[in-house]
Design a protein that fits this description.
single chain, elongated, 2 helices, 41% helix
Length: 68
């Protein structure tokens, strides 16, 4: 903290007074947010665990020679 404060003073960066109080209480995220996050996570896991279709073979290109 001291280094940051010193650098800010040297660069004339405005800084607020250091106080040990929270300016505004954080809003709790709530249960709904976490339920949605868990549901999305479980859906992603299920999609990753589902068997993937085999890859399609690449189309083979034939080389054509010009007849003499």
């Amino acid at each position: 903290p001291f280094v940051i404060t010193t650098l800010c003073r040297l660069r004339d960066v405005p800084a607020e007074e250091d106080i040990d109080a929270i300016s505004s209480p954080e809003r709790p995220l709530g249960r709904t947010y976490f339920q949605r996050a868990v549901r999305d996570f479980e859906a992603a896991q299920a999609a990753a665990a589902a068997p993937q279709p085999p890859p399609q073979p690449a189309a083979q290109q034939e080389q054509h020679q010009v007849p003499p």
